[in-house]
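I'll show a record.
***
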Amino acid sequence: MSLVTLTLLVGLVAVVLWFYRTYHARQTTGPVQILAAQSLGHRDRILIVRIDDRILALGQTSTHISLLTELDSFIESESQHSSGESSIFAGALDKLTKRPSP
């Protein structure tokens, strides 16, 4: 019986740690804020990050983070958290690559 209790306790601790790491990392307090993120593959993505008063576009892989460019501005909106997130990010990416948006 004590083995079952110990197993349940270890499992509960693992779940609590996973939730803490998952949701604590997404907070936007402090000098570094993730403004937008777009997945490019399994572990690759582009991030728009505000660090103090600078806004940076970063490329992230499983082993490396690269500075793509520094942005003059980035307009945040409430629709980023809804289904329009990818279109807003696509507009920012088009601006980065100097492509005209359709």
